[in-house]
């Protein structure tokens, strides 16, 4: 599938695909960087017979990331994590990813998985999905399965709507229920400031259900908004930062901001602190602001921490990839060759 972009992008360096390189010998362990995502655009187009909503989204990887360590073992799946809110059983997406790949590849090999969490939990940043994608990518290497990106994304779709995106990451248009992906021209390094109320979590299912309840209530239903998808795609193609900020949209803000006023307050605070535009990511409660520079993002974060005591802030940037496989130091050293 061809990526959208200007003609100038045709000669640009191709997007790295870290999941597709050959490993010269079986790996015993590997470490992966699993990047979070934000929604630059989320439009709800309608309901589906399967219970999901039909959506059009622009998904973007960011540099805020978890670290996922995998180590081969004789049998079983063993999961560890220092974060108290992360389950360590089969309800964890990372565990389920290993279980799925084990079953589909008919392998008897086991794995020890350790999650080093930096992406906040239940924040609308796809932290769990990113960890699951990292397990798929890492076990493909560890177990020498030889699966392609498309193979991994097909398996990922069985785990959750965001997991296929997280396998490859970058900037992508997502349609269907979010599993149909079309790569867009990457725009690395957009400065961002993220804000998440520390003790607030929002259920994705609740957000969608409440959206549809509000749509059904004629007293709450505004005039339908025209789709802004062409505008944001044009802004991305032309790398117009202000146009991008002006094109941000998330239909799930309607129920979330009405229920959780702190999310609306944070959106306004980010704009007052210099953001060109601000939006809630996914079902929230994390909001982000597009900043003029990373330095201004960091400075604004320092100021806002004093104003919002129960909120965490991160200054970060957009990333061109979803999962990065850290190189094995042993593979970077070569034996000396004696003269004959």
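Sequence proposed for the structure above (340 residues):
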């Amino acid at each position: 599938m061809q990526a959208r972009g200007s003609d100038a992008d045709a000669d640009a360096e191709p997007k790295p695909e870290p999941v597709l390189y050959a490993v010269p010998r079986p790996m015993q362990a590997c470490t992966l960087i699993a990047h979070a995502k934000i929604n630059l655009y989320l439009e709800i187009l309608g309901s589906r017979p399967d219970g999901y909503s039909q959506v059009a989204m622009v998904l973007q990887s960011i540099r805020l990331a978890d670290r996922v360590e995998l180590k081969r073992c004789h049998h079983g799946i063993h999961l560890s994590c220092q974060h108290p809110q992360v389950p360590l059983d089969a309800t964890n997406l990372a565990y389920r990813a290993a279980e799925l790949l084990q079953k589909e590849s008919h392998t008897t090999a086991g794995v020890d998985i350790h999650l080093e969490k930096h992406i906040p939990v239940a924040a609308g940043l796809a932290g769990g999905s990113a960890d699951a994608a990292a397990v798929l990518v890492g076990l493909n290497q560890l177990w020498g399965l030889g699966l392609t990106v498309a193979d991994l994304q097909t398996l990922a779709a069985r785990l959750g709507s965001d997991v296929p995106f997280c396998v490859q990451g970058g900037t992508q248009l997502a349609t269907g229920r979010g599993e149909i992906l079309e790569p867009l021209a990457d725009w690395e390094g957009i400065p961002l400031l993220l804000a998440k109320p520390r003790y607030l979590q929002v259920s994705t299912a609740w957000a969608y259900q409440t959206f549809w309840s509000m749509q059904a209530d004629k007293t709450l239903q505004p005039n339908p908004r025209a789709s802004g998808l062409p505008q944001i795609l044009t802004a991305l193609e032309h790398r117009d930062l202000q146009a991008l900020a002006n094109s941000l949209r998330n239909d799930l803000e309607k129920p979330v901001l009405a229920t959780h006023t702190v999310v609306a307050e944070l959106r306004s605070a980010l704009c007052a602190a210099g953001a060109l535009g601000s939006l809630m990511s996914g079902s929230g409660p994390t909001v982000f602001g597009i900043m003029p520079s990373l330095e201004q993002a960091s400075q604004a974060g320092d100021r806002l921490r004093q104003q919002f005591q129960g909120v965490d802030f991160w200054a970060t940037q957009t990333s061109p990839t979803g999962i990065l496989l850290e190189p094995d130091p042993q593979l970077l050293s070569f034996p000396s060759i004696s003269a004959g």
